[in-house]
Every structure is written in structure tokens, then in C-alpha cells.
Write a structure and sequence with these properties.
alpha+beta; 12-stranded mixed β-sheet; 10 helices; 35% helix; binds adenosine-5'-triphosphate; binds L-homoserine; kinase; GHMP_kinase_N_dom; Homoserine kinase; cytoplasm
Length: 318
């Protein structure tokens, strides 16, 4: 028996909701922009093999791979429930660049925990599994935040409510929005990009943040796309992180002049997203970003749609 799970890329924050809003995205050309994890029966308690385009960027020791930590916390939770852990042989296909702002660690975490859970016939429910995913993301980035793992696992646009035993709920979005994702090919560490943020904010920024986030969620629920797009503004992180992203200011200005409805940093960067409601505009912006924002052979640009599915079981054998 083996189970394979694919977990998609995600946009943390979506500019307007620092740490509390995130969106899962997939390229419209069918490219699988995310990690895959396969869990098979093993002959020892745990074994990990890594492959894929970005395998060389992973820590050399399996014990330092987040997939190993996922297995450890999964074992801990099964132990609490008195359920036997099966010996597993895991394979990580690492397709996501690390430190990209596309939720790369979230992809590995979500694919690993979802696959482990399915392999054991779902002993953990959705909320228990998502809580573990948040714990693992916190382990890597220095602070628990669900804005990558929740959309990556559940799909769509997710808002972190973290109340009444609920971690995240989905927010309706707009069918005709295209998300142009441009990864320049350089690395920005999430932990470092968090460490440069101020510990306190001015009252006017707090008020603006509340207006933008409340306005965005309201506009999504009342299906006002123009208003929703206008509310995609970041006063919490972008002003402080811009300096980490060479060419970002110019690229955002180009995208907005070329007809993007909004443009911002994806997660902690360096990937930027540009939102369009016209495919021709999205493709024009994508071509420009490929020429001017991408810095090396590892960079790429994809025109995406919201991925409403989140992590998905693919190609399993029973
Ligand atoms: N399977 C894995 N996938 C990604 N990173 C991993 C994995 N295992 C261990 N790591 C380590 O976790 C850290 C991830 O760093 P960081 O949080 O900046 O990247 P990220 O998750 O790719 O960022 P982002 O969410 O912005 O895409 C790196 O130090 C990396 O070596
Ligand atoms: N909300 C997180 C996302 C990291 O991808 C941050 O901006 O630090």
C-alpha cells in the first residue's frame, strides 16, 4: 500500500491580512507547482528519500528535513490516542524553491502530514491535523502562522479565525481572477523577514490595516471585486520588506500601470503576485516579469488561478 499527496503553492498574507489570510494557487497550464509526498510500508520505523528539482537545496541530513519532524509529531499524536504507528518509508518530491514566498515548507509539511494521516486511515481530524501543520510551520519560521498551511491543506482563500475550536474558514473569492506569480530565483528567509518587522505599530497604521482587511473580507462576501481589489494593501510588512526584494518597486509599478488590479509580496517574498481579471493582461505582465524581475535560471513566472482543492491524494495504491 502507498499514498501520494500533492500540496499546492500558497500566497501568505495576500498583502492585506498579515498572518491571517492566505490563498492556494495553481498554474493554469497544469504545471504542478507544489511538493509531493509518498508514504509506503517500511521495514524500519522511518526512512526518507528526497528527489525533485529543488532537492539539492534541502538539508543534507534527513533528521533536519521538516518531513522527519512531521513524522515525529504525528507519532506523538497517535501515541496520545493509543493508536499504533506503522513503519513508513517516505519520499519527498521537492518541486518548490525554498525561501521563495510560495509556502515551500508548508507544501512539504501539508503533503507529509496529510499523506501520513491517510496512510493510517485518518486517525486525526481536519482541525487536529491543521494544528500540527501550524506547529511545524512555527518550528521553521520562528512563529506559528497558518496563512500558508491552511490554504495549502484546505484550498481556496482562507481566513484564520482561531476561535471556538476553529482554526481557519474559507472566504468566497472571484472566479475570474488570475494571480501572476513571479519568483525571481533568490532566497529570502521567512524567519529573517519576520525579524525585521517592528514590534509596535502607529495608531494610523492599525486603523488602516483594520479598514483594509475588514473591507476586503466584506467585499469578498458581498461579491464586489473592484472594492476587494482596492483593499489589497499592506501597511504591516511590505513597507519594511521592500528593501529585501531587488526590483520589486519597479515591477509592482509596471504591473499596476499594465492593468493589474493589485500587486504585492507573496508571503515573506521574494515572489510577488499581481492580480488581474483579464487573461491577456495577466500574460503581458507575466512576460515582462520573466524578463525584468526574474534574476536567474531558477526563477519562473506562472499565471495561476485559486486552487480550490488544496492538498490532494494522487496516484495511490491500495
Ligand atoms: N522539506 C523542506 N522544505 C522546505 N524547507 C525545509 C524542508 N526541510 C527543512 N527545511 C528548512 O526550512 C527552512 C525553510 O525556510 P523558509 O521558511 O524561509 O522557507 P519557505 O518555507 O520556503 O518560505 P516561504 O514560506 O516564504 O516559501 C530552510 O532552512 C530549509 O532548509
Ligand atoms: N505570514 C508569513 C508568511 C510567510 O510565508 C509572513 O509574512 O511572515
Amino acid at each position: 500500500m502507498n499514498v501520494t499527496v500533492y500540496a499546492p503553492a500558497s500566497i501568505g498574507n495576500v498583502s492585506v491580512g498579515f498572518d491571517v489570510l492566505g490563498a492556494a494557487v495553481s498554474p493554469i497550464d497544469g504545471t504542478l507547482l507544489g511538493d509531493k509526498v509518498t508514504v509506503s510500508s517500511g521495514s524500519e520505523p522511518f526512512a526518507l528519500r528526497c528527489e525533485g528539482d529543488f532537492v539539492a537545496k534541502l538539508p543534507a541530513e534527513p533528521e533536519q528535513n521538516i518531513v522527519y519532524h512531521c513524522w515525529q509529531v504525528f507519532a506523538r499524536e497517535l501515541d496520545k490516542k493509543g493508536i499504533a504507528l506503522k513503519p513508513v518509508s517516505m519520499t519527498l518530491e521537492k518541486n518548490m524553491p525554498i525561501g521563495s514566498g510560495l509556502g515551500s515548507s508548508a507544501c512539504s509539511i501539508v503533503a507529509a502530514l496529510d499523506a501520513l494521516n491517510r496512510f493510517h486511515e485518518n486517525p486525526l481530524n481536519e482541525t487536529e491535523l491543521l494544528a500540527l501543520m501550524g506547529e511545524m510551520e512555527g518550528h521553521i519560521s520562528g512563529g506559528v502562522h497558518y496563512d500558508n498551511v491552511a490554504p495549502c491543506y484546505l484550498g481556496g482563500l482562507q481566513f484564520m479565525v482561531e476561535e471556538l475550536g476553529i482554526i481557519s474558514q474559507s472566504v468566497p473569492c472571484f472566479e475570474n481572477w488570475y494571480w501572476v506569480m513571479a519568483y525571481p530565483g533568490i532566497k529570502v528567509s521567512t524567519a529573517e523577514a519576520r525579524a525585521i518587522l517592528p514590534a509596535q505599530y502607529r495608531r494610523q497604521d492599525v486603523i488602516a490595516h483594520g479598514r483594509y482587511l475588514g473591507g476586503f473580507v466584506h467585499a469578498c462576501h458581498s461579491q464586489q471585486p473592484a472594492l476587494a481589489a482596492k483593499m489589497i494593501k499592506d501597511v504591516v510588512a511590505e513597507p519594511y520588506r521592500e528593501s529585501l526584494l531587488p526590483g520589486f518597486k519597479e515591477a509592482r509599478q509596471y504591473a499596476l500601470e499594465a492593468g493589474a488590479l493589485a500587486s504585492g509580496i507573496s508571503g515573506s517574498g521574494p515572489t510577488m503576485f499581481s492580480l488581474c481579471d483579464d487573461l491577456a493582461v495577466a500574460e503581458r505582465i507575466a512576460r515582462w516579469l520573466q524578463q525584468h524581475y526574474v534574476q536567474n535560471d531558477e526563477g519562473f513566472v506562472h499565471v495561476c488561478r485559486l486552487d480550490s482543492q488544496g492538498s490532494t491524494e494522487i496516484g495511490s495504491e491500495y
